[in-house]
Every structure is written in C-alpha cells, then in structure tokens.
C-alpha cells in the first residue's frame, strides 16, 4: 500500500501537509521574532505518531476486550543525540490507565500486543532508538 502526502511551503518556516485522507496539519520550525507557532515541529510530530499508532491499537483492544477504563493517556520522553543529524536514540513510552475497576492483566496484554505485534510506528522507532515501555495503573 502506497501512502501519498503533499507538503507545501507557505513561506517563512511553515509548511502545510495533507495526509492520504485529505486532512491538513502544519509543520513549523521554532517560532522566530515573536511569531506564534501553530504547527508541529517535525521531530515532535514523530512522537505524536508513535503515541497515536499505539494508542489506536490499545483503544481498539479495550473495546474488543470490553474493558472498563475511565482515562487513558500516553506520555513519551525522548532523548536526542548531540551530533547532527539529531535523532531520538532513547525513547520512553508510558501508558497510563485510570479507573475504579481496571483489569491490569488484560490492559497489559493490550499494551504488549501493540508494542510487540501491531504498531508499525513502534517497529520503525526500534530501528534507530532504544525503547523503554512502561505501563502505569491509577485507581480512582
């Protein structure tokens, strides 16, 4: 399957990118001269893609397994290399589940399936970074 995107320069340090569904997002560099940045920085966008990919897997499994979860979020901490080209060489992915009746075993299984089998973005990150995945359960 081939995905096609179009990324168009809008002047300055801003681009508009359309995805295969036709939705748009903006990519920008660090704000300069007091400009208000509305877009994503490219490397941060990669981290959002990682969280989104795995999050969609886990959300699908939560539904399929009929699990009771009040809140679910993914936090990512990533370290860039010092030398150019800078890339994320260490990435921590933290899954947080909140609820009063969490089935921790099944939720961990959902995370493991995403991390080990389903999330293609996770597999891409594995090619260039050291991944540390942790799951956190918060009882309400």
TrEMBL record:
InterPro entries: KH_dom-like_a/b, OsmC/Ohr_fam, OsmC/Ohrsf. It comes from the Bacteria. This is Osmotically inducible protein OsmC. The lineage of its organism: Bacteria, Pseudomonadati, Bacteroidota, Flavobacteriia, Flavobacteriales.
